[in-house]
Amino acid sequence: MTTTAPGRSAVQQVQDLLRALARVDGAGMDDAARVDLITTMEQLKGAAAAAQARVTVAFADSQLADTADETLRERAQARRSVHAQVALARRASPSLGDRYVGAARALVGEMPATMTLLTAGTIGEDAAVELVTATAATTVEVRRETDRRLAGPGGPAGQVSPRRLGQLGRAVVAELDAAGVVARNERAVASRRVTCRPAPDGMAYLTVLGPMHETVGAFAALKKHAATVMAGRDPAGELPQGRHDGAIMADTALRQLSGRRLGQVQPVAVQLVMTDRALTGIGNPDRSVMEPARMVGHGPVPAPTARSWLRSHQRRSPGETAEQAHVWVRRAFTEPSGRDLVAMESKAALFPPALVDYLVLRDDTCATPWCEAPIAHADHITPRHAGGRSTAANGQGLCAHCNLTKEAPGWHHEVTATGVHHPNEGPHTVRITTPTGHTYDSTAPPVLGRHWQPPLPDTDRWPGYDPDLCDPETGAPLDIDWAEVARIQYDLYEPHGTAA
């Protein structure tokens, strides 16, 4: 929930426009007029982005006006607070808040031609941001000249795509500041990293950011290996088996990165959360055997897919030991509806490892609204120095950025619903109050993911094993021998189970 201070005419005018737009549907006009309306709406989005940039700069300047005499650390904390407030107002992650404020300052103060086009709706916000990004690490003089060439009279900004505009911007900067570009390329090596993010249909992207020559060289090596396999000339005996070259490249990269031999399954554990019924086909008859699992930090996984992953780990590859083939299962427990985990608490000053695991499992990603960064800190909502205890109710998982922002002056976090401690209050909820008095509620998602629904009375009750839990080779039911295949750790003891 977000609250706004009353009595501001500009806010009311924009809200009136929103209400007017809600009545626009293209009815009662010919198709030529509809196309004109679509064009005008696109212009409106650009004009709104320009106005938003101007208001953002005014807000940031107002918030930082009294920080000139503060220490560097205090000024950095104040900037972080401002950027986080902008991110919450725009329903975006804090890292995007940094970008929003930076782009707004560039457009308003250093790129008048681009700002003129954006205000008129001639270009959209994405094109303006591309040009801001292309000129981000150069001097103000170079940025202004690039702005004049590309967005000034006769410039191409209004006739090319956002991506092309960014390319043109980088080309102009390379011409005007060649030495600076070389120096930035050298410094950029320090930003090399590997990231992972979910993709549709049970897939994921593993992205390597590295020096161009090394990254392109690695890609070429994968491509060469794929060509060798496709031709049937791989020294290790790898065969195409119906795969295209892209699939072979992906399989090879993942296998080599994880240190697996050809044919060996992935030995590194991932955290899957699923009901006992979805896992084994038995358990609470009110739940469906097809209820999706959740991969912690990434999103939903169809139940048959999760079971298929577990099946693949039961069959050892040649030379693989039983220890390497183990599937690890930890049992956690929920309150009766199955939505939320039962709580834990500790008298320790720091959260013990089991409680940290609990917070990660409950919150999934950073608990700040619209921030999907991985959890880095187990945070006391009410600080220890203010009497806060190390409990599930007083704990939340935050990324490092949001945990630092929380400590800035004017920010206040308060538990408004403790979740399973008091089930009638609803799920665990934290109310965040910003320095301007705006409030945002952070509610823990259902343990199985936001797609979760409570069981319906008429849910099909299937008494035996799911047919999908059969060995694909023999057709026999898959009887999971937990004593041999899995190690079960009982962390919590309550009567409602969820396997994690």
Number of helices: 17
Catalogue the unreliable spans: 314-325, 458-468, 470-477, 480-500
Please report which band the strand proportion falls in: under 5%, 5-15%, 15-25%, 25-35%, 35-45% or over 45%: 5-15%
Largest sheet: 6 strands, mixed
How many strand segments? 15
Which structural class do the helices and strands define? alpha+beta
The whole-number mean of residue pLDDT values reads 81
Q: What general outline do the C-alpha atoms trace? A: globular
* Major sheet: arrangement of strands: 5-4-3-15-6-14
Number of domains: 4
Terminal-residue CA separation? 31 Å
**Fraction in helix:** 40-55%
Provide the gyration radius in Å.
27 Å
Family: Belongs to the Rv1128c/1148c/1588c/1702c/1945/3466 family.
GO molecular function, one term: nucleic acid binding
Protein name: DUF222 domain-containing protein
Domain HNH nuclease: 354-404
Describe this structure in words.
The protein has 500 residues and is α+β, with helices and mostly antiparallel strands. It folds into four domains: 28-191, no CATH class; 194-257, no CATH class; 272-337 and 451-499, no CATH class; 345-443, no CATH class. It is built from 17 helices and 15 strands.
Q: Which short descriptors sum up this protein?
A:
single chain, three-stranded antiparallel sheet, 43% helix
